[in-house]
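Build the 3D complex.
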Amino acid sequence: MNTLSPAQIRAKIRAGEWKKPTSGLAPAYAQANLVILDRKFAFEFLLFCQRNPQPCPVLEVLEPGDHEPRLTAPGADIRTDVPLYRVWSKGKLVEETPDITPRFGPGMVSFLLGCSFSFEHALIGAGVPVRNIDEGKNVSMYRTNRQCTPAAPFSSPLVVSMRPIANELVARAVLVTGRYASVHGAPVHVGNPEALGIKNLDKPDFGDPVSIRANETPVFWACGVTSSVAALSAGLDLCITHAPGHMFITDIPNENLATG
Amino acid sequence: MNTLSPAQIRAKIRAGEWKKPTSGLAPAYAQANLVILDRKFAFEFLLFCQRNPQPCPVLEVLEPGDHEPRLTAPGADIRTDVPLYRVWSKGKLVEETPDITPRFGPGMVSFLLGCSFSFEHALIGAGVPVRNIDEGKNVSMYRTNRQCTPAAPFSSPLVVSMRPIANELVARAVLVTGRYASVHGAPVHVGNPEALGIKNLDKPDFGDPVSIRANETPVFWACGVTSSVAALSAGLDLCITHAPGHMFITDIPNENLATG
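Done.
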């Protein structure tokens, strides 16, 4: 799988030949969080993202009813090209499914939002190990005591991902990820979990715990899961997201999302 | 005026004591382009901006009917705090006025978009002279042959601003403005006007011509006027913009819009 292009991987996912998380696939290309909701709430949700660009960096918004991401993955189908979706009603999970075609009506608006896989690839390239990848786990994620700027009916605490970084590499990790402003960018916090209201790093709210070694500092980045939490906060009749770790793979090289 | 805070300047504008362009006022603070239109088209216009962030960097979008920019200028009034507005109907200018309160209905949505004044301040600070400021003119702006990504009913060619830069300072100008990704960022083009479809630099489509000296290169940045052209492209019954050069002055320090 690792040698396939994004389009080839999406075709395999669409055919049901890949049903697992997408971490490590097409590592040079941006993967995306997905939120789908009714056009009645599309302005307010886009406004939420605009007001909170660090956790919710918008890569593409599809036209109402459109299922082809024409800008970031021409030829793809947003209804079938994610390995696993979650369907929500009034904030409750009602189904996990690999195909949302039956649910996708003419008023549905799909939002693709940047994902930290993009900068993890850059960190590794810069010689900064990424613990969750080395341990084969999903990254540790936490709700914080910081509130995002709301856009009614959407609100959310800032959700962060945490990676333990060797003290002598913290500055490099900041600089490397700071280049990726359109996919979360520089850390929102370095060091003290309690300053973010996180009581126990071993018990993440999402994802898996990872080991933290002596002489390592926990570093926190804004996390795209914030967009899912915000989308569900409105209690809409229907909202569809990707299942954790099962991202949409775009044709956008990570490097296109970097500056400087 | 130069020693006043943004809030003090806005109060003077509101009181009718300042009716001129805002260039040079509160130079450390971000000034903004303004577009106001009906909420029926707010999602599509925000989508246009999201798809074209370099010319249309959104600083704040107000709630429908709200006239206070709570995030970028708490206490301000978007209806009175710009020295001169333009009122448009079906794409035609119908009025210039310093007060749009009578026009501002409960469904109006106000968009504030970043402005190159922010990086001009940084250029000067970095020792890169800005010709339009030195000559007391409005910057030269041109429609290009590049089309922005549309979001129906909004479309526009990319509009650029041009500043002649001494050849030995071009690289510095690129680096300095590249830090300001949320206010147009690095140049979109350096050197050849014809590559952008610009036939005669002496005849800008907006603003004033400036002198270009030997050993200077024309450098082109994405320009916020693009947002006005796009807003007018839809032929809406009512659209309100700032008059050229008469910007809204926010409380956001320019430095907050820079990275790295």
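The longest strand of chain B covers residues 29-38.
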